[in-house]
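Sequence in, structure out. Go.
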Amino acid sequence: MNDTFPHRLIFNAHKFGGRPAIREKDLGIWQTWTWQDMKKEIFLFANGLAELGFKRGDKLAIVGANRPRLYWGICAAQCLGGIPVPIYADSVAEEMQYVLNHAGVSFILAEDQEQVDKVLEIKANCEMVQHIIYDDTRGLRDYDTSVLHNFEDVQAAGSRLAAKNPDFLIQEIDKCSADDVGIFLYTSGTTGKPKGVVLSNNNVMQTAINSAKMDGLTEKEDMLSYLPLAWVGDHIFSYGQAYVTGMCINCPESDATVAADLKEIGPTYYFAPPRVFENLLTTVMIRMEDAGRLKRKLFHACMAVARKTGVALLDGKPVSLIDKLKYRLADWLIYAPLKNTMGFSRIRVAYTAGEAIGPEIFDFFRSLGINIKQLYGQTEAAVFITAQPDGEVFADTVGKPSPGVEVKITDDGEVIYRSPGVFQSYYKNEKATQETKNKEGWVRTGDAGFFDENGHLKIIDRAKDVGKLSSGALFAPKYIENKLKFFPQIKEAVAIGDGHEFVSVMVNIDLDAVGNWAERNNIPYASYLELAGHPDVYDMMRKNIEAVNRDLSSDPRLSESQIKKFLILHKELDADDGELTRTRKVRRRIIAEKYDVLIEALYTDATRCHVTTEVTFEDGKKGAIEADLNIGSAGTFDPVRKAG
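Output:
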């Protein structure tokens, strides 16, 4: 019986035994635990939780970075019929407090002193919290131990319980079933308070099995686990798929070492949001611009070969012998060293999702022979709704329905689906559950989309965000924003237009990309604000926007949504300031309120606008930034009418 993750853990410890299950880089050295080791560690901790009073139905909050003990906490809670509740590691105390109280958390597993301090700050407002367990002991020696427990001490207590009652834990595990609640995963809260998505063991298990079969994943895979534990993608890739395939996940030493650790591990299976691939390409192009003339010339010549031949070779399409030989030579000279530098030498399958990825970025990596594909998913689906099959990979689609998933488009253009991964409910929110999922199990995604002639799904925008200009023309802000973010100089964009005569945008520059460009062009600057307001940067931004406008002019649905006015924001949009969610999605309502003076100025004849913005510093203190921002204009193009 392998229908729960504790049962699967027992099966894997028997089947894969000495194969690596999880690694962690600590103090520069990779530590490895086999499946047998991991079973022992999890069982000790589960018994220890039981000794502390953890029982069936209790909630264990897990907060911190990707650490083996935090992943073990998920399974340990499930062993006892409890419910793990991961929380974003960068959550401020107020955000953490909401989740703890809403979920009714009584136990907390925290990574380190930073997370413990946040919990202690709000503990008086979280009456159900009884015990706080920590992984990293640094800085916690003199803390009050009445509610604080060292992870190893909990395991020691678990060892004593196992000695007294060796059958206890197996009996608890055997009480668990596929239909039991397996985890609460909280949404990012784009439009309001986060919702607790209730997923059963079966939701996660079946989705993991189906998706792993689709890509032929086995116990031989290696994956770098660096994305937030509270995000559904990490839970499926680093937990669900790892347990159903027996593959090994690898935890980086820190956020700062992810790139270096990626190179050392050389994963065979990889996931990253578009911004990671965008940043990688930006870094590569910056390095090439700084390289010598000969090396730069060789790189561009080889990339021309890759653009012509690489994608066809990856998709198994016919390529001439001479082109194959050219590609092989270029691979030896450029592609292989470049992939090795990025840590992509062994990748069999890589996915990206969350936002649209630029066609040029997508094709760049695929032309190097990296099998990067797109998927479309939601927390409510246990990730997978659609995915691109091998050989059917297009930059402008998110693929076909994943195995076991049905997808339809409603009469008003909204994407709906049902699948084995469909969530049980929103915790304590029956109204929202009924608004999202009907009695037949169909779930509203809130996204507008359509199927193309190849049977692939295309997403236009969030259905609620699709609006109209005052002329009645369609306005799809996210679609426009994604096109803008294809440019490496643009980190974030917010499009405005619903109910207005024309479209305007507010953009954030990418400091690395624009800063490097400024240095190469001998443009001095002392701060983000100074660089963002430079006339040459505005000119660069205008050209990028006009390139987007030219592209929009050929789209009959959105040709009237070309951008006429723009400004470059004086600060980066930030989750700590409430402008983005923890998964970096734009909070439109908050931005509309916070920057109303800028939005109003974009629809007047003003060429400058003064703004004062409250910001939150790293220590939690508040401050303000004042600036006079320029308002720029961009050229538009006549709609392109297709013949016939």
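Check: Residues 5-268 form a domain with the Rossmann fold fold (CATH 3.40.50.12780). Residues 293-314 form the longest helix (22 residues).
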